[in-house]
């Protein structure tokens, strides 16, 4: 079974502190849904090299055991509560993608 991944890129973050409420809710919701953080860059000190139209702002990569599990975690009540905590006008590019077996 192919794994599922959440991929989030935040094009611009004017105030990283505004994400604190979302992060406090999203982390436990992701873990409860079976997700594992593979990348939280550059906030955890990791390196980012951007090419083409890439950006070096926050990049989040979360792995799930299956695509279906990734979708279910996003649709969960706990994660939906986290989404409400995202600041108004906040922009991110979020995708759920299926891995290759």
Automatic annotation (TrEMBL):
Judging by the UniProt lineage, the source's domain of life is Bacteria
What SUPFAM superfamilies does its record include?
Answer: Dimeric alpha+beta barrel
Q: Where is the signal peptide?
A: none
The record's InterPro entries line, in alphabetical order, gives: Dimeric_a/b-barrel, DUF1330
Annotated DUF1330 domain residues: 3-100
Q: What's one Pfam family here?
A: DUF1330
Protein name, please? DUF1330 domain-containing protein
